[in-house]
Design goal:
Strand order of the largest sheet: 1-2
Shape: globular
Structural class: mainly alpha
Strand content: 5-15%
Bound molecules: zinc ion
Largest sheet: 2 strands, antiparallel
Number of strands: 6
Order of helices and strands: HHHEEEEEEHHHHHHHHHH
Oligomer: single chain
Distance between the termini: 18 Å
Number of helices: 13
């Protein structure tokens, strides 16, 4: 299989084609059903301008994400000439598929058949790998699509609410050649539902990546750390709630990230409680005089603080950096 340099090369992914169709439907429904009826108010024009800006940004950053080659610099250099760094041991890692020495956090993507610098994941929606080269475009695309779908949802709700006004119903029927307002309501309602679903998915993905950036790990490293953590945990009979939670985490990585953040927050809270228990509590002057001073009180209090705070790992995702050891490695499914 030839190396894929970007996501606009054939064959296209079905997810990618689906995203093009969905974006096309959103744009068509907005400019076809919303714009003609809202050019006569300042609020309508402002919403149209905002929507156009977010949709334009989504298209531009979507193109940049898809078209940017995220390959390791050594792989790109090898395409145009003999590799400057080659042979096992020449680089930090050596990829036997690309036959080139690559950087430590580079991983080989089997779908693109190339090594990707600071490999994050292979995204089927843009049909290419996300890595150091296009990660910033990918984040900007998520933010722009999130804004676009939020505005799409807002305008759909506004249009549906507007149908309670008889003059707006007359405008709809006049503008669209007698189209029943019920048909307009159904179209806008479906647009709103699709926009709500897209907004939820995109925003949870965006927050997931913001969490990864905060922790300094990639999606690949996060998944590897999660699998390692799961393998280390002893099998225990789980409740229905636990099984449900495990299943949710597999399908929605954002929840895993939230859970890790919660674990970390709980550990910090426990550590703060432990520190607070070590410090003597401030008491008022009258209390101070009435309480007998007993040596060693604070020491006994510190012993009562939860000891698990310092024993617990600081978060499995952080171990992901340690997982980056050898290349080539399989891309996550
Ligand atoms: Zn490779
Ligand atoms: Zn890939």
């Amino acid at each position: 299989m030839a190396q894929r340099q970007h996501g606009l090369q054939r064959p296209f992914d079905s997810h990618q084609v689906g995203s093009w169709v969905l974006i096309g439907c959103f744009l068509g429904l907005f400019y076809g059903l919303y714009l003609p009826l809202h050019l006569n108010t300042a609020a309508g024009i402002a919403l149209i301008a905002l929507y156009s800006a977010s949709a334009g940004s989504a298209l531009v950053f979507g193109f940049l994400t898809t078209h940017t080659d995220a390959a390791d610099p050594a792989v790109i250099a090898k395409r145009v000439g003999p590799p400057t760094v080659s042979g096992p041991g020449a680089g930090i890692n050596y990829c036997y598929l690309c036959e080139v020495g690559v950087a430590k956090r580079t991983r080989h993507c089997r779908r693109c058949d190339k090594c990707v610098a600071i490999f994050d994941h292979h995204c089927p929606w843009v049909n290419t790998c996300i890595g150091e080269g296009n990660y910033r475009y990918f984040l900007a695309m998520l933010a722009a699509v999130g804004a676009m779908t939020a505005l799409q949802l807002a305008t759909a709700v506004q249009a549906c609410v507007g149908l309670t006004d008889s003059s707006f119903v007359r405008d709809v029927e006049d503008t669209y050649g007698g189209m029943p307002s019920a048909v307009y309501a159904v179209l806008m309602g479906l647009t709103g539902l699709a926009a709500l679903a897209a907004f939820f998915l995109v925003s949870q993905l965006l927050f997931f990546h913001l969490g990864l950036i905060h922790r300094g790990v990639t999606t690949y490293e996060f998944i590897v750390a999660q699998r390692r953590k799961a393998a280390q945990q002893p099998e225990r009979p789980s409740s229905r709630w636990q099984r449900c939670n495990d299943e949710l985490q597999k399908n929605a990585p954002c929840l895993s990230m939230c859970q890790l953040c919660c674990e970390e927050a709980m550990q910090k809270r426990a550590a703060r409680r432990k520190q607070a228990s070590v410090r003597p509590r401030p008491v008022s002057g009258t209390q101070m005089s009435s309480l007998p001073q007993r040596p060693g009180t604070s020491k006994r209090m510190s012993g009562s603080a939860p000891s698990s705070a310092s024993d617990a790992p600081p978060g499995s995702a952080r171990r992901g950096n340690g997982a980056a050891s050898s290349a080539p490695s399989p891309a996550p499914a």
